[in-house]
Structure formats: C-alpha cells, structure tokens
Amino acid sequence: xxxxxxxIKKTKTVCTYCGVGCSxxxxxxxxKILKVEPHxxxxxxxxxxxxxxxFGWDFVNSEERLTKPLIREGNHFREAEWEEALTLIAQKxxxxxxxxGPDALSFISSSKCTNEESYLMQKLARAVIGTNNIDNCSRxxxxxxTMGLFRTVGYGGDSGTIKDIEAAELVLIIGSNTxxxxxxxxxxxxxxxxLNSQKLIVADLRKNEMAERSDLFIQPASGTDLVWLSAxxxxxxxxxxxxxxxxxxxxxxxxxxxxSIKKFTLDEAEKLSGIPKEQxxxxxxxxxxxxxxxxxxxxxxxxxxxxxxxxxxxSNLLLVTGNYGRPxxxxxxxxxxxxxxxxxxxxxxxxxxxxxxxxTDGSVRExxxxxxxxxxxxxxxxxxxxxxxxxxxxxxxxxxxKGEEMGIVDSNMNYVHAAYEKLDFFVVQxxxxxxxxxxxxVVLPASPSLEKEGTFTxxxxxxxxxxxxxxxxxxxxxxxxxxxxxxxxxxxxWTYDHxxxxxxxxxxLAPLFAGVTYERLEGYSSLVWPVKPDGTDTPVLFLxxxxxxxxxxxxxxVEWTRPVEFDDEYDIHVNNGxxxxxxxxxxxTYKSKGITSKTPRTFLEVSPELASERGIKDGxxxxxxxxxxxxKVQCVVTDRVKGKEVYLPMNDSGESAINxxxxxxxxxxxxxxxxxxxxxxxxxxETE
Length: 688
Ligand code: SF4
Fold this sequence. Notes:
single chain, 688 residues, alpha/beta, formate dehydrogenase (NAD+) activity
C-alpha cells in the first residue's frame, strides 16, 4: 500500500567489500535492509553482484557494533561521551608531540574508508601533528604493484577498465584467486572466454576455479614468477616478436634492458620454476599472436620478498609486446578492498601527497603549505611496517589507527601485538571492538559505508559516490567527522559540512582529480582518473603518452630474489588467500547470517599426496608450526593443491589465523610482508 511504501527507502551505494566496485540500490525500512537491487546503469557490474554484495550487510545492525567511545581503565573499557574521549586524545597527542616530537606519532588510514576520509587522515598527520608517518593497508597487498607500475609506466593504477579486460583477446592471470577474490570481474572473463573466444592463461600454485577454466594452466614453484615471466619476454625478443614500432616510439631503455634479460633462458627458468620450456614457448606464442593482451595479478605476485620486481617484470613484458596505450591492453593489479586504490590516491602514504606527488618535492609542499597555512615536514615518514619496528625500538610512542584489523592482518602478529603493548597511547577507530582495539587506550565508534556519504575508487580507477542509506547507529559517527573532531580538538579549526567540501579541496590541490565534483558523480555517474578540470575522464591510460617528462615509458631491469627458505625442518609451504564467502579476517562477514550459515569456519587444504603420507583425512585436526608461532586447523583433502603445498584461507581471527605463523620478511622495495613465503612443519593432532 502507499502508506507502507512511504517508509521504504531506496538508496544507491557502492559495495564495501572488494575492489571491483559494484554499485547497487539498497531498499530499507527503518534500519531493516529489505533487499539489494542491482541497477543496469552500474558502471562496473551492471546487474551482477556476488554473495558478499548481496547478503553481506547484517553486520551493520550487529549487536556488537560500538555505539559509544570507550576509554581504558586498567584491564577493561568503560563507555564515555565524545567530549571526554576527544579531550583525552588531544591531551595525549599534544603531550607526546611536545615531549618526543611529531614523529613519535603514527597514523594508519583505512582502505575501507572513503577518499575524503583518507585525505583528512593524511592532512591530520601532516598539517595538524606535523609528521609524514601515515600509511594505509595497501602496504599489505598492492604497494609492490604500484611500485612496478611507477617505475615503468608512471601511474600506479589499472591501465584500463573491466570492459577492456572483457574485450582483450588474451588474459593472463598471475597469483590471483580471481573467482573468489573479485567475483564479478571473474564472471566477465568467464563469459568472454566462452562467447568471444578470449584466451585465458592462469599461473598459480593452486588449481583455483579460473585455472580449471583456462586454456593453459601453469603451476610455477612459489616465488619464481619473475623468472618464467622474464624468460618468456626474453624468448619473445629472441624470436623477433617484440613490438618494434612501439618500442622505438614510446619506450626508453631497451638496450639496457636487453642486456639484463639475456640470462633468463628457458633452460634456467625451467630449472628454477618447474615450468616446462614448451609451456613458456606456448605462452610467448599466445601473446605474440593475440591482438591485445591484459595481465591481471594479485597477492600471489606481490606478497613476496621480490614482489615489486615481479610486478615490474609483468610491466616490462607488456611494454616489449606493445600491450599498453591501446584499448583492451595493459596491466591490472586487482585491488583487494573496496578503496585500496583511493586510500593511496588521496595521500595516505608516507612519501606521497594526494595524486602521488612527492613529499620531497619543494614546489608540491609549497602548494599544500599555502592551502593549509602550515609548514610541512619534508622527509618521508614511516610505513606501517616501519611503524611497528619504531614502536619496538621506542621511537614511536603513539598510534591512531582507523578501520583496520592490523593486529590480525599484519604478518607475524605476535610481534605486532608485543608492539601494541609498548605504545604509550593507542587510539583505534572501528565498527567493532576488534582484536586490535583490545590493545587500545581509546576506542572510537565509527560508521560503516551504509551510514555515510563519500566516494570510493575501485580497481579501474573509477570514482563513485555512495549515499547515506541509514543514520549512524547510536553515537557512532562517519570517520570524516571523527577525524575533523580530533583535528579541531587540537585547534585546527576545520569547517567541512559535507564530504563534498573535502573533495572540492582535494580536487583543487591534486591534479589527478582536478575535475572531480559531486555533481559529476550524481547517482550512477562515475569518473575514471585522471580527470581534467573540464570533467573529461580517462578510462584508458597512456593513449598518447606516459606520465614522464619525455612522455615515454621506461623498461626497468630487474633481478630475481630467491624466496625466503628455512631449513628442512620446516618442510611445508603454506600458501594463503581468500574464500569467496568471507572477507579478510571476517570482521564483517562472520557477522552476516546469510554467509556464516554457508561457510561457518576456515579450513586447511591438503594435497592427496601429503594426506596419504601423514594419514590425514577430511576433518583431521592439524597444527602448523613456524619459527614465529602456530595455528590449529581442520583439513580438507583436495587436488587443488599439490605435494607439500597447503592452502590456508586468511579469513580467521582465532587459532587458525594465518598471521600467527607468518614472518616479518618483506618485499625489499616496499616493505609489503612476504605473506606467501611461509614455511612450517605439520603435526597431526587427531584423525576421525
Ligand atoms: Fe562487492 Fe566485489 Fe562482490 Fe562486487 S564482486 S558485490 S564489489 S564483493
């Protein structure tokens, strides 16, 4: 009836889970979510969504939501009013800054939060406190990809859009569990594979769903992607299959690169990676014969001690074969969280301001100093890996962390927890009393995406608006308001009324977003950066030039870094990644009934060979022990994995949490943890 309909509200939002950036309408009545309705105008997904976007919203009304600030008193927390919490934070921050200098404070932004919130967090750190100690959790995933792209093509983002991936003749997926991590994007590839006779090559340790559907599946030894990629590139050049015209017109450094890559012979690569020569030749041929090739990659590439170099090798291969600067070509590092791209784009990085302008560049700093009316620190700050080390060595005394379960997500979590215990003052801002928040001195109740306005940027570099579906629960507030309250308590005098005011300021300062306005993002409209002042956006990058002074891309020679290896005692390689149904440590999805009824807990995938060697059956309980800690988990025997390779989904925060056994080893160029280089020994605890 009309009366009933009056209370029903339909609001456009953008999914809070993965980097595909699906948008849809949410129907609500009061706080009840009635349904998620896809919309044909949604630029990334049209009428598709996955289980998380469709059913993953119960957490918003969870009884466990924080609705009041919490202040530590001895071993427990007590509820407090905002004023008391903010006063305490300002007092402590000021005191620590006065006693130890601004670099004794550290800030961690969130890739679940909006662009506007990432902008404000770095502004708080830089302009109000005076430190560049600001980072975000893309340090745990895709910073190495960004590095590889910065070195070679100049922009750290996907070269084109999901439509370009769909229309490419050849798709190469490396180290990405695409169908579970980026479900809607993977259905595009599956469809193109079927309908447009698109070819698909998958390289992975584990026979995931995309591997099963591929035209060619290779299983390289862990950490050897750079080797086989370079051998394929070398072979292409030896055959004279490189794109001569593209290389001479648009790329620098070919001669130097050529001499660096000669050592990557097929023989050598076969020995190190275990990939038969014939398969590498087949890959080279397929790339040569395809009119357009795209490469998709994720954590299987980046979370290694040579993650940046492997990402660079991917980009080199694309340059050599002329697969940049045209539609349906290019590099696609798949972003994990909904706003991994945006968190870095808007300056939550220790060495870059919004738009990736360098903090060390005096003219850039001057621009911000004029706009913000302060003097800015010129030296790059600490990344989150260095912050943890800084707490251990006593130089970092305080941390303000928003929207991130760092205590479970960072590698070597026992070491991270020991750091938290050393902090003089720790502020955590979240929806829930997370494991990380248990170490906090003050916990601030934030609002999820459905309770705020703002913008997210998906893996395609597409900026999209989200609208307020529900009012903030209890006394919780959108993160941008909380950051502003903290800044103002410290005397900043910020006066943003709405996230659009924040975007207007950022657009003035950050060239990539010059033409971004909320009007241009109305409803299902979106903009793909860079956006010119007149609002023209750039779905395909590098059509005319690469963003370097001479407009040319750069081939960047790289060397292989041997993955971290332990002695024979630790004979099991523990791979890890996602499950379709859950998201990361499961903070949100485990609180959504539609999801937990299907997949209530995590499990370890064990190969049939290892199972028969150790007497493991489905349901067997085992313990994995690394030099850093141990996990206990139930097994599933499956031929998705082979030999002494096991797979542990990362979606657990209890005794099966992967980071109980990961190390502090990291990518040598970006400090991204080498999560994928985990060795352990395995003990069978009981067999049913
Ligand atoms: Fe959300 Fe990603 Fe699923 Fe789309 S594919 S609905 S963005 S989790």
